[in-house]
């Protein structure tokens, strides 16, 4: 007798189809989770690599710091043995703007700030310091002190920051005088001036001159190509022969360049109303042949030197702060992936913190 073969019923086909769909969805979900997990592991691994490289660089350079001029939990400026091959120490700046997702940047000697690590959600610097107090000595000659300066608009005054263009014909500067009871004379050791370059090559000259600007007592130079053209920075000049300056006598700090076009700008403040006792801004557009003064402006400068009194004076107690170590924490975040690490370094040179 011949057997009969039955076809699948509609119910059986429906059940089989449903089971097939469920199995396929399960397999697809598993593959998706595996793919997403692999991508997450890869992203996390990359963040850890980025963080490790950045931390190693910061640790290595901070360990060799010579002096520290600025230090906050998210910013540090320090001098470091030559890194750009010019034979001179370099100023290195590490900075994080404090915004999640931002970058930590590294800047060398006024150059372009370059990101060294991105996707930063946290960055902090914590210092370990030693403090040394040096008692003042009784002498008629002080240590180096600030003789005269203008670094910002004085409290209670209003005004705006501007630029004083410097060229071979446009000379810019500031008048100053130094006075104190029983002061016999003083010397000028160095000056810092607030400058911004314009990208030209040539030479910047900074001189100490008489009040009438007819006599130059000493003049020092700086290459224009070494000036930052993106921001104003403090640049230092050292003097060696200004040892017998007269108290209560007005002198002039004058800047000029070798270029006929503007080679640099001297940062200045222009007051809405001139504050009492301010120094006066000086300028010449005739290569120093004729001069004008303006009491409503001040160039930004700091003048250092030593005071010599007619009788011995008790010196001021000096407190010096040295950086012995730094601990820094770094956290990177990208999507759901994070990398977090803490590291530290011993500062081998015990750099003095001069900017605090």
What overall geometry do the principal axes of the alpha carbons give?
elongated
Mean pLDDT equals 86
Percent helix, as a range, is: 10-25%
The total of beta strands comes to: 22
As a percent range, the share of strand residues is: over 45%
CATH topology of the largest domain: Jelly Rolls
Structure description:
With 356 residues, the chain is of the alpha+beta class. The chain folds into 2 domains: 49-134 and 320-353, no CATH class; 138-314, Jelly Rolls (Sandwich), CATH 2.60.120. It contains 1 helix and 22 strands. It has an 8-stranded mixed sheet. The relative contact order is 0.21. The mean pLDDT is 86.
Highlighted features:
356 residues; Jelly Rolls; 2 domains; 8-stranded mixed β-sheet; 22 strands; 15% helix; 49% strand
Summarize the structure.
The protein is of the alpha+beta class. The protein folds into two domains: 49-134 and 320-353, no CATH class; 138-314, Jelly Rolls (Sandwich), CATH 2.60.120.
